């Protein structure tokens, strides 16, 4: 997979050298748990997680909070994907 060193908007304008891509559809329960307990280099080997960032000035506590937010958002996405058909069936 080709990873650009810079991320570009649709107009081709540069906006970030750091990014995080997470595909909740490809993440298993084990993968989700790994977000909290494994290193970023390990997670980058997984097909659901891709991060490019600079860790300058980030404390250990900031890293724990950031990983928890990522964990919570993937769990929320998984719940919404699971509830998609029942909610559609109710017409909501």
Task: Tell me the layout of helices and strands.
Layout: E1 7-8, E2 14-16, E3 19-22, H1 29-37, H2 40-43, E4 49-52, H3 60-82, H4 84-90
Quick rundown:
The protein is an alpha+beta fold and 92 residues long. Helix content is 47%, strand content 14%. It has helices at residues 29-37, 40-43, 60-82, 84-90; strands at 7-8, 14-16, 19-22, 49-52.
Uncertain runs are none
Radius of gyration: 16 Å
Strand content is 5-15%
Task: Find the count of extended strands (DSSP E, 2+ residues).
Answer: 4
Q: Strand order, biggest sheet?
A: 1-2
Q: What oligomeric assembly is this protein in?
A: single chain
Quick one: biggest sheet? 2 strands, antiparallel
Keywords:
two-stranded antiparallel ribbon, elongated, 4 helices, alpha+beta, 92 residues
What does this structure look like?
The protein has about 90 residues and is of the alpha+beta class. About 45% of the residues lie in helices and about 15% in strands. β1 (about 5-10) and β2 (about 15) form a beta hairpin. The longest helix is centred in the C-terminal third of the chain and has 23 residues, at about 60-80. The termini are far apart. The mean pLDDT is about 75.
């Amino acid at each position: 997979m080709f990873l650009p060193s810079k991320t570009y908007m649709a107009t081709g304008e540069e906006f970030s050298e750091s990014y995080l891509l997470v595909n909740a559809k490809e993440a298993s329960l084990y993968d989700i748990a790994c977000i909290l307990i494994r290193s970023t280099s390990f997670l980058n080997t997984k097909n659901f997680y891709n991060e490019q960032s600079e860790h300058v000035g980030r404390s250990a506590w900031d890293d724990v909070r950031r990983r928890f937010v990522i964990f919570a958002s993937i769990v929320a996405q998984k719940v919404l994907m699971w509830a998609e058909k029942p909610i559609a069936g109710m017409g909501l």
